[in-house]
């Protein structure tokens, strides 16, 4: 083989080896996070990274959500529309539309409710429809899986719609926090700093309030008054927030910990991740063998 072929094949092998290794490690890490995190009840859950089992319910303040391809009412949807294209020798599917709903979810267990922002989550719904048609937007409801198999898959478009519905079970693992109800403590320094940063956004107003000698700048004594006023404001805001009813939230962790929402349970998810990790390990091994073969057989 010439140098160009060698470089191309070596890049392909290195990418396969590295990508397989990353996929294997990532899936093993996610499985271990799930298995090592104990299941909590919403009412007694500690603030931070937690795992819940519960049932999906409607969020009272959120308008009804309609899945765009089938027109089905649901709590969450994800769609993909692909067009069949040919280069003369083979056919492939190209994505022409891919969207996900942005509404919040509500998980309930026997002890309480938790609002979930699904942004950034791995959402794994059990309701998934795939069918085919000749228009970019499907005409009418999704066809059954059996009928879809009978269709000629070289039709112009393939549609995929995934949904979450009221009453479905939900496994959720992510970052949990509670506001109101007097549960959250006050970090005075952090809260004071946040108030000061907010006031600096209106610097003219800050100067008008605290520049007592009118020299156009804040001296040490004036800054002390700023800090004291900010501390009092932060404490007042905390008292108002604590007086509100407790509201629970789950969202994407700030760290690299997995954020997963699934109709399947923890054990089923962990098995799937282990199989995917094994597939990644096989790809990594094949890439390593290919690298070794190329190095031994290239004599450029």
TrEMBL record:
Q: Which superkingdom does the taxonomy of this entry point to?
A: Bacteria
> GO: which molecular function terms?
calcium ion binding; ubiquitin protein ligase activity; zinc ion binding
Q: Which reaction does it catalyse?
A: S-ubiquitinyl-[E2 ubiquitin-conjugating enzyme]-L-cysteine + [acceptor protein]-L-lysine = [E2 ubiquitin-conjugating enzyme]-L-cysteine + N(6)-ubiquitinyl-[acceptor protein]-L-lysine
Q: Which enzyme type, at the first EC level?
A: transferase
> How does the entry describe its membrane topology?
Multi-pass membrane protein
Q: What Enzyme Commission number does this protein have?
A: 2.3.2.27
A GO BP entry is: protein ubiquitination
Pfam hit, one: GIDE
- Region: Disordered; residue ranges are 235-254
Q: Where in the cell is it found?
A: Membrane
What does UniProt give as GO cellular component?
Answer: membrane
Spans through the membrane? 6-25, 273-295
- Species of origin reads Pseudomonas turukhanskensis
Supply the alphabetized keyword list. Answer: Membrane, Metal-binding, Transferase, Transmembrane, Transmembrane helix, Ubl conjugation pathway, Zinc, Zinc-finger
EF-hand domain ranges (all copies): 198-233
Q: Per its record, how is this protein called by name?
A: RING-type E3 ubiquitin transferase
């Amino acid at each position: 083989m010439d140098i160009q072929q060698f470089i191309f094949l070596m890049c392909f092998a290195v990418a396969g080896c590295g990508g397989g290794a990353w996929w294997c490690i990532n899936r093993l890490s996610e499985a271990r996070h799930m298995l090592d995190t104990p299941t909590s009840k919403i009412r007694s859950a500690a603030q931070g990274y937690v795992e819940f089992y519960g049932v999906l319910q409607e969020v009272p303040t959120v308008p009804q959500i309609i899945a765009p391809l089938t027109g089905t009412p649901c709590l969450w949807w994800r769609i993909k529309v692909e067009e069949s294209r040919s280069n003369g020798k083979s056919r492939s599917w190209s994505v022409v539309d891919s969207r996900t709903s942005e509404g919040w979810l509500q998980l309930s267990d026997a002890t309480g409710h938790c609002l979930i922002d699904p942004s950034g989550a791995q959402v794994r719904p059990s309701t998934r429809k795939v069918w085919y048609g000749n228009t970019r937007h499907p005409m009418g409801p999704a066809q059954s899986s059996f009928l879809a198999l009978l269709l000629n898959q070289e039709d112009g478009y393939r549609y995929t719609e995934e949904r979450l519905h009221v009453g479905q079970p939900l496994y959720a693992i992510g970052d949990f926090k509670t506001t109101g109800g007097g549960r959250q403590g006050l970090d005075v320094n952090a809260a004071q700093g946040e108030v000061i940063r907010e006031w600096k956004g209106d610097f003219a107003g800050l100067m008008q309030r605290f520049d007592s000698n009118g020299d156009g700048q804040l001296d040490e004594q004036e800054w002390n008054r700023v800090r004291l006023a900010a501390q009092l404001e932060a404490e007042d805001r905390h008292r108002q927030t604590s007086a509100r009813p407790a509201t629970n939230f789950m969202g994407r962790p700030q760290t690299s910990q997995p954020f997963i929402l699934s109709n399947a349970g923890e054990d089923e998810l962990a098995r799937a991740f282990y199989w995917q990790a094994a597939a990644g390990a096989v790809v990594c091994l094949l890439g390593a063998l290919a690298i070794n073969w190329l190095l031994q057989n290239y004599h450029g």
